[in-house]
Amino acid sequence: MNVQKALILGGKSGLLGQALFHTMGADRWEIICPEKNEVDWFNPALTDEYIQDHKVKFIFNTMAYTQVDQAECDRKNAFKYNAALPSVLGRVCRLRNIYLIHYSTDFVFNGKKSTPYTTRDTPGSRSVYGQTKLEGEKALLAEPWEKLLIIRTAWLFGPFKTNFVDKIINLAKDKDNLNVVHDQVGSPTYTLDLASHSLRLVDKGTSGVFHLVNKGRASWCELASESIRCAGLSCRVTPVTSSEYPQKAPRPAYSVLDCSKFSMVTGSTPRSWIQALREYIYHYQESRN
Ligand SMILES: NC(=O)c1ccc[n+]([C@@H]2O[C@H](COP(=O)([O-])OP(=O)(O)OC[C@H]3O[C@@H](n4cnc5c(N)ncnc54)[C@H](OP(=O)(O)O)[C@@H]3O)[C@@H](O)[C@H]2O)c1
């Protein structure tokens, strides 16, 4: 079997990075997951030296400034991780003909549509997080090469790092009622599904921008209710509006992603988020109890 050497940025501690590590570890990959500060990734010469020394052929970049609200008053750092970092990686990967798989977000869209966003839709975000992620995409696409893959995903849940579903289940164990926002609708996505589907795109040698999420749509309120139901808990979920639950960063009211480009290229369709959620809760949450 042909072993391929990949670097996963964010693979040591990130929600998606660890899912990629788990999925790829069971396959034909030889993986390197450096500590967050092991290398100065913002320095092109040092990054280049590291990937040359380690004979890296693929880079999966999941490292990002993901604290959406905090980013509103920390644009400098959000820009650094979400835009400057991909720009450096792009330069080095283009020069060395390395396959770069970079993750982006549904939050690049303004949320004004009411049908799923395709890769042909024009992005435009009102939050610093969304804007800086979009700047990262643009930096990469300014000089695209045939081994650049940008995967926009959304609303991640999965093992290895606390996420929305875990938080809801933990709260529901102690409370009779939870108020959860119902006027934001998106595409809940299981990190392990995202990891294996990402590899399908890589196996096909795909380049360009793709949307990759589980099938279906949900509000945060629906995702919370379904999580509580799957976990066998009885906590009530009360729908509230975004204005009743103010957050620093504006979120898109609607950010469902259309994966038809992914399906056309790979011939496969991600399963529904409800099926994936059940698997996550039965396999991973049960083992924690
Ligand atoms: N999570 C979602 O719902 C979601 C939705 C759409 C798109 N995405 C995209 O998917 C990719 C992976 O997301 P994820 O949820 O797996 O990310 P994550 O778990 O929050 O973090 C990924 C990596 O980035 C580092 N990181 C996060 N915030 C940082 C900061 N302020 N300064 C420095 N390093 C920071 C993390 O280090 P630490 O673990 O030490 O913080 C980790 O190594 C990102 O590109 C994200 O934009 C995520």
Condensed summary:
With 289 residues, the protein is α/β, with parallel strands linked by helices. The protein has helices at 15-25, 44-53, 68-71, 75-96, 128-141, 164-174, 191-203, 220-230, 260-266, 273-288, and strands at residues 4-9, 29-32, 58-61, 99-105, 148-153, 156-157, 177-181, 185-186, 189-190, 208-211, 218-219, 236-240.
CATH class group of the domain at 4-155 and 188-215 and 257-270: Alpha Beta
Assign the structural class, choosing from mainly alpha, mainly beta, alpha/beta, alpha+beta, or little secondary structure: alpha/beta
What compounds are bound to the protein?
NADP nicotinamide-adenine-dinucleotide phosphate
N-end to C-end Cα span: 38 Å
From the spread of the alpha carbons, the general shape counts as globular
> Strand order within the widest sheet?
2-1-3-4-5-10
Note the beta-strand portion. 15-25%
Please summarize the sheet with the most strands: 6 strands, parallel
- CA radius of gyration is 19 Å
Please provide a written account of the structure.
With 289 residues, the chain is an alpha/beta fold. The chain has a domain at 4-155 and 188-215 and 257-270: NAD(P)-binding Rossmann-like Domain (Rossmann fold), CATH 3.40.50. It is built from ten helices and twelve strands. Helix 5 links the parallel strand 4 and strand 5 (148-153). The longest helix has 22 residues, at 75-96. The radius of gyration is 19 Å and the shape is globular. Bound molecules: NADP nicotinamide-adenine-dinucleotide phosphate (NAP). NADP nicotinamide-adenine-dinucleotide phosphate (NAP) is lined by residues 10, 13-17, 36, 62-67, 77, 81, 103, 105-106, 133, 153-156, 161.
